[in-house]
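Entry 12.
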Amino acid sequence: MNMCLKKIVRNLFIGSLILLSFGCGKKEEKIEIGITQIVEHAALDSAVTGFVEALKDNGFDESKVNFEFQNAQGDFGTAQTIAQSFTQSKKDLVLAVSTPSAQAMYNSSKDIPILITAVTDPKAVGLTGKNISGTTDMPPLEKQVELIKLLLPNAKKIGFLYNTSEENSRVFLQKFRSITDANGLEIVEKGVTNVNEVGQALDILLENVDLLYTPSDNTVTSSISLISEKAKNKNIPMITSDDVQFNAGGLATESIDFKSLGYQTGLMAIEILKGEKIENMPIQGPKETKLMINQEIAKKLNVNIPQELIDRL
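Predicted 3D structure (tokens):
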């Protein structure tokens, strides 16, 4: 090979290396999604799992998205700090799981698209605006009251345990009471402010009711194993608001599925990431409910299951 040809080959080789280095250096920026959750419990965890699965199933996996998960461990001040952090880092989108986390995030930013889930009544707690949408976990209360009447026709007094500091739960109680009043049922309520008060409050409540209803309250769900055990020891039937509580020892529910709810929210996130404006997306309710009855518990409590319910299982 003569000197001229060698020089041409060498220059071509160097040019190829330069182009290759530029190509490798040009890295596509990932989408930044923040996920803020008020506390760890099975319902909220399932919603997050469903949300991430929806994104991954549609091509938005870790190769394209950075998911930053933050949990406030039940502290609203921490939820506010998480929200401020997500705002400062200019997330492309935030999933806020639970009412307190959603309120903290919305207070922090009116620009970042915020999707909420596991929020019972967004409008009642001020979660409306141009940068916020998502899904509500309001269960089918009318169906649940009808279930109580069919399964426990002699029951008159319904125990209702909730955290008085959760605006979400106060709204829930108000809606539930309006339905039970219309059906001739009485609510006996007992409020707590943290999980440490649940046991003592429940001991008092269970002495004065025919059944226990467990709302979609974060404190209640976090304590559901204890609540279920105490109800079982007193032979008090437990009708639950969701599938997670049911699986911890409930007699029955007409329930939403939190993983499905999270998946539904994830599909909304995909639309936003593809260019849909969040202000054009109304908040959605659960698309499906499911009847669940624990027949073993029914037998132990001498509860007769009507044929019309058996046919739906």
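Annotation: The mean pLDDT is 91. The first strand starts at residue 31 and ends at 37.
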